[in-house]
Specification:
The protein has helices spanning 9-22, 40-53, 103-107, 151-160, 169-172, 175-183, 204-217, 272-279, 287-295, and strands at 2-4, 32-37, 59-67, 75-81, 89-96, 117-120, 140-143, 166-168, 192-200, 221-226, 231-238, 241-246, 252-256, 263-266. The chain has 299 residues and is an alpha/beta fold.
Length: 299
């Protein structure tokens, strides 16, 4: 771990390059730069998840921790390159005092040339991520509605401020559910008449899944809120009976449908590193997310 106090973005970039040379690896091999905007309460978990994701997507991780309450205006950094931190490069920067408002100027010399940039807000996010000074650097901008006080209302904010390249981890959490539900229609299924998604109160993923089903099946889909955890069941009413997926424990699901024996399906809730790794597999705009986000009910 390299610690720098009262430093600058250029000095941090130089320190990373110097450490690469010291390790005998002047060529970084990084495929992207991830910029994380976080406070002290979540920066450690967000950075650790990105480090784990870097094992699949080698990248430079720059975590900005604004500290406007500090009296001194300066930039402090903790840097690690390779080793126990994985194949990537990690810099955790504390922007103290007045510098807290200038993460963009600090970021510029730390961006890897000729590689994509991903911005990630693990907690509070700007209303329009694409217009944020950090967001303007990024081809992909990741938010997490689950971190908001009112996650479903946060989706409405995401919808109003959407720009191509935006995505939200509330959508990423649905990938296993969407895949499982899609496989149900590999074999002939009687016409679905309506549906219901049940899940934890104010879970943004519940609202997104109900909207996705409504758009895909073109039938009304209700939402039933409960204690969770997360999404607990999906019920599709057909002319021949109910098609149900029940996951009361957040780990495994029971699949039942007319004319077939019940089946157990692994459907665990994934950790943050897995969600980030999934989002980094594609850096083009997610048109499916955009369509579903536009269809989420709003006030």
């Amino acid at each position: 771990m390299i610690r720098l106090e009262g430093t600058s973005g250029s000095e941090i970039a130089t320190a990373i390059t110097r450490e690469r040379h010291r390790m005998g690896s002047p060529t970084t091999g990084m495929v992207l730069t991830m910029l994380i905007l976080a406070d002290e309460s979540c920066q450690s978990d967000a950075t650790a998840a990105a480090v784990t994701a870097a094992r699949l997507h080698p990248m430079r991780i720059v975590t900005f921790v604004p500290r406007p309450q500090d009296r001194d205006t300066r930039l402090d950094a903790e840097i690690s390159v390779g080793g126990d931190e994985g194949p990537g490069e990690v810099a955790v920067l504390r922007l103290r005092g007045l510098l807290a408002e200038h993460a963009n100027s600090v970021a510029v010399p730390l961006l890897l040339p000729d590689t994509p940039v991903v911005a990630y807000w693990p907690a509070a996010a700007p209303d329009v991520p694409g217009d944020d000074p950090i967001g303007r650097h990024a081809q992909r901008r990741i938010t997490d509605a689950a971190a908001a006080v009112d996650p479903v209302r946060a989706l409405q904010v995401r919808r109003r401020g959407y720009q191509a390249g935006d995505t939200d981890l509330a959508w990423s959490r649905l990938t296993p559910w969407r895949s499982l539900l899609a496989t149900l229609f590999d074999a002939p299924v009687p016409r679905v008449q309506d549906g219901q998604v049940s899940g934890e109160s104010d879970d943004a993923s519940v609202a997104l899944l109900a909207t996705w089903l409504e758009q895909s099946l073109r039938v009304p889909v209700r939402v039933e809120w409960n204690q969770g955890p997360g999404i607990t069941s999906v019920c599709l009413q057909t002319r021949s009976g109910q098609v149900r997926v029940d996951r009361p424990d957040g780990y495994s699901a029971e699949l039942s449908r007319p004319g077939s024996a019940q089946a157990q399906v692994a459907l665990p809730r994934r950790d943050l590193a897995a969600l980030l790794a999934e989002e980094l597999r594609r850096l083009d705009p997610d048109e499916a997310y955009q369509r579903v986000l536009e269809g989420v009910p709003h006030d």
